Amino acid sequence: MAKIELLTHPKWLRLEHALRDIPRAHLLGYYEMLIHASYAQGCPDFRSADDLEFASGWIGEEGRWARALVRWGLVEELADGRLRIHDWLEHPPRTIQRRRSVHKWASAEGIEIPPSAKRGGMDGSGHSRPSAERRFGGNLSSGGHKADVRQTQSGRSPDTHPDPDPDPDPDPDPDPEINPPPTHPVNTVCPETETAPVSGPAPEPALLTYRCDGKITTWDLTASYLAELEQAFPSLDVLGECRKALAWIGADASRRKTARGMKRFLVGWLGRAQNSGRARGPVPAPPRSNNTGSQTAAIDYEALEAAFPGQFAAKAAAQRAARKDGV
Q1: pTM of this prediction?
Q2: Distance CA 235, CA 20 (A)
């Protein structure tokens, strides 16, 4: 949870003023969700503005929340493009500061651990502190030496005949992972949250590729999504309309959409095409036979092929060849 001083901090007040069209309680909620997400992952770093806004639960204009946090100093933009919550290690509760994952992240980033964040059983140098038995020179499991400890703490002299010094107890918190020296280059945001790559099916080939705005610069129309659109718009030449949309976007860079918004854009485009009357016409009906069984006219497969590309290609080709030969 953010500190109570946040609401009166100059940085926060400037942020509230910049986003004054959003209620103050909503801004605080977005920031609290961001803080809680950082506690859950054990570090304050986010790979991109999209990741940061997703962790915050932001529902406003894309990029606006991240830009405001960076502008007013609540989030820092690192040289590699990551975004880091400012002075994060100074603010979490001690239970968060003392997590092993937090110490791993700080060691990997070369950030000094505050004294308040040192884990139990460790002094400032990373070594175990002497136990109570070693400090008071007795075995605390025996009732008599508990009294010796109380007498020592109150200023009275302890028993002059203590038992022999017992074997030292094991370290209360032998944790060799605290502040380990980095042994390999760190190329992840939060090392402990990185998972091994999962092998999966190869990505589908792209039928059409659209240029996009934002971090993701392209979006691919795949065969599986084209099939979904064809089911939703059976009366349209969906692939032809998608090509028209590609040409429309390519003619003016200001028309580009974000990769996340491409599906919504195509559905809207196809809906307008269907409502405007660009739907394919009905299938030409074959001529009826007369009573003698002979057809009054031959079936025009070329017209059928023009209406339904690819479905009557072979018969249309045969019909053209027959017409060329004068049959």
Answers
A1: 0.37
A2: 47
